[in-house]
Write the structure tokens for this entry.
Amino acid sequence: MGLSEKKILLIVSGGIAAYKINNLVRDFIKKNAEVQVLMTPNAEHFVSKLTLSTLSKKPIFTDFFTENGTWNSHIELAHWADVILVAPCTANTLAKMVHGICDNLAIATYLSAKCPIFIAPAMDLEMYQHPSTKQNLESAQHFGHQIIPAEHGELASGLFGLGRMAEPETISKTIENFFNSAEHSQKLKGKNVLITAGPTYESIDPVRFIGNHSSGKMGFALAEEAAKLGAKVVLISGPVSLNINSKNIDIQKVTSAKEMFDEVFKHYENSDIAIAAAAVSDYAPKEIAREKIKKNDDNFTLELVKNPDILKAMGEKKTKQFLVGFALETENEEQNAKEKLIRKNLDMIVLNSLRDENAGFGNDTNKVKIFTKNSEKDFPLKSKTEVAKDILGEIVR
Ligand code: PMT
């Protein structure tokens, strides 16, 4: 609990409040956090690299390149962090963050981050009150970043008012509270979750295949959200162009339904929860032509054979697993979904219909109805991330 072993990437920008950052770094280190400091070029006028490096026990990064020509990877830095804290955040750095003006390593790192972001603004009275600053803070909040509000008091200019960076103790407590409440909400901690996602491709010949329009977005969102709840996730995905960065997600890429079947059963026994969001091709060509099929005749007949039903096999082999299927329907939606729930021996089924606008394949949104044997619950159209949270919420319940 607390800050122990948490990785904090601290971006220091060039304001007078930077002199307080030494105390903040000291406090983080005392609480056993790992701190990587990244300074904007102007920050160096206000606080010494040597002091921060000594306190954080790490080198301090400012530029894309070191003096001996090696590259400081903003992507690696961003992906290393559990949180990014920008303190002090000047009006200039705030504006660059909000508008994506990527002219230094700190902003490039911020733009590459997927972790939660905290901003502790610090500026003079009028700057803090200016409509552009207010608007930029609102935009940052809208991005999901958390603002640690500036405080009232004497400012470096001699003026009194709002604009002083929050005290290091307040900032440290805010970050600590965040990790404590995140750990409280780790409702799937210790659980192994298996998820299938995306389409399968069934080869016809070396250039053609039978596939479908699944983008993988629904399954990937489920994987990301399950990992955020503390689960260890194995994500088995058909061919999609999405990537995952969470350390708690082991992604296995497959192409055909048979490959997906084999991969699923390497992990199924060890799973506590299995969710089948993949759009698996029900049929595959009986034979795959070794050479590209030539267009000789006007008609061409392809003989198809049934693929294994992966979810049904999971239902048959179920021991401890909580098994969740999807139903993608175009007619008699509810009846078909309920019938699949029973036939495949599921604990829950998530119905999405291609008759609902912006739901199902490809979209960033989905509209689902969740059935168990004795309950049903309708959800409005939402982003796939929110839908994933709803599904996992129902599973946890
Ligand atoms: O990937 P996206 O673009 O984000 O789109 C998401 C989605 C629409 C693909 C997803 O929400 C979804 O509905 N996935 C299931 C699609 C599907 O194949 O539905 P189905 O009703 O044909 O299959 C029922 C269930 O059996 C599904 O859980 C499916 O994964 C599973 N199945 C089906 C056939 C088969 N051979 N093996 C299976 O495991």
